[in-house]
Design a protein that fits this description.
Layout lengths: L1 H8 L3 H12 L11 H9 L2 E2 L2 E2 L9 H14 L10 E6 L5 E6 L4 E3 L3 E3 L3 H7 L8 H8 L8 E7 L24 E3 L4 H12 L8 E5 L14 E8 L13 H18 L3 H4 E7 L1 H8 L35 E3 L13 H16 L1
Parallel strand pairs: 6-12
Antiparallel strand pairs: 1-2, 3-4, 4-5, 7-10, 7-11, 8-9, 9-10
Helix pairs in contact: 1-2, 2-3, 2-7
Length: 356
């Protein structure tokens, strides 16, 4: 349990609760859930520019990272097509993957096919079901994809001023504006309470909030004097109690709860808001193809990691369809902005390609 680990090393409850957020981020779990300690490890085991456990902002926004990867691939001769939805994987008579068929009927031929879509989309929607073992399909259907995350993007006309560290008269950013700000994290019991509400189908009445202001470090993201605020919040169930839909009323009600919480820490925040974009778990699934809205393509619980990701029989990036590989977050080692799954899958695919 994460709580036992934190109790062993720390005494400050606010510090323990703040660290605990990385043990439950993106996970339908509480700090008291068995295995939550691994999720914390997963988020601190990496490094950035030689600093172990460090995180950073991407200049130009997260899309700039995708553009950098695309530029590197293009420099090696890759052709990149966007806004081209794939209908299904194309198989040859021998059952090998030979490319993909696009929604407009265009066939793109290839000796190998790598999918960074979720296992659910890759194998349940894009692959011919008759070519997959029934037990494999059943295992993919049983992957736990529950997600507690609602992402809220906010545009504000001034920096938030927190009661704990009010802004200076000149309105210039202070050190804490350049960091990840954790709210409603004074105690691990608050995280557990928020989790419990979601397990009963109710959005948390006091959500866990991670607030970042990337425009402080990257002014080009917003007009002069204005800022963009990124809110990563939990816990919101994918399916609301009583089967109620995540309609506009439900979205706005939850966002209002989040904004009320921020207002308690930073009076005037609500008055500074000029626009907001609310992405609940169903929205994350619909827009980004995340199963259940899960940012990791499946829970990071101990039964869905390592040799069991996405299934025990196919945890090495290969699939039941020869020539089709899984290279996204649904493969080992899971989610996170690191590219490890893609790198590992590429090595396996190249090994097979040399044999061909």
């Amino acid at each position: 349990l994460l709580g036992q680990i934190l109790d062993r090393w720390f005494e400050s409850e606010p510090l323990k609760a703040t660290l605990a957020t990385d043990a439950v981020i993106g996970a339908m779990a509480s700090p008291h859930t068995p295995g939550s300690g691994y999720v914390l490890l997963h988020h601190v085991m990496g490094q950035l520019e030689g600093r172990r456990g460090a995180w950073g902002y991407v200049a130009g926004g997260m899309g700039a990272l995708s553009q950098a990867i695309a530029s590197a691939a293009a420099a090696w001769g890759a052709h990149i097509f966007t806004e081209k939805a794939v209908r299904h994987v194309l198989l040859g008579r021998d059952g090998w993957a030979q490319g993909v068929v696009l929604q407009d009927g265009t066939e793109v031929r290839s000796k190998l096919v790598l999918s960074n879509a979720s296992p659910q989309i890759t194998f349940l929607e894009l692959s011919p079901q008759e070519q997959l073992p029934k037990d494999f399909v059943q295992q993919i259907r049983q992957v736990d994809t529950r997600s507690p995350v609602t992402k809220i993007n906010v545009a504000v006309d001034r920096l938030p001023s927190f009661l704990a560290a009010p802004n200076a008269r000149d309105g210039q950013p202070l050190p804490h504006h350049q960091c990840s700000i954790h709210l409603n994290c004074e105690g691990t019991h608050l995280l557990h309470q928020a989790f419990t509400e979601a397990t009963h189908g109710h959005p948390s009445s006091r959500p866990m909030i991670e607030l970042c202001i990337p425009s402080v470090l990257d002014p080009g993201l917003a007009p002069r004097g204005c800022h963009v605020v990124s809110l990563f919040t939990q816990y919101t169930p994918s399916v609301l109690a009583g089967g109620r839909p995540w309609d506009k009323q439900a979205r706005d009600a939850y966002a209002d709860t989040v904004f009320d919480c921020i207002e308690a820490y930073a009076p005037g925040f609500k008055a500074s808001v000029v626009g907001r974009d609310i992405l609940t778990p169903p929205d994350l699934e619909r827009i980004f193809g995340l199963p259940g809205g899960n940012i990791f393509h499946g829970g990071m619980s101990l039964d869905q990691l390592y040799f069991a990701r996405p299934t025990p029989s196919y945890s090495g990036y290969r699939s039941p369809i020869p020539g089709l590989y899984l290279c996204g977050s649904g493969a080992h080692p899971g989610g996170g902005v690191m590219g490890a799954a893609g790198r590992n899958a590429a090595q396996v695919a190249l090994e097979d390609f040399r044999r061909l």
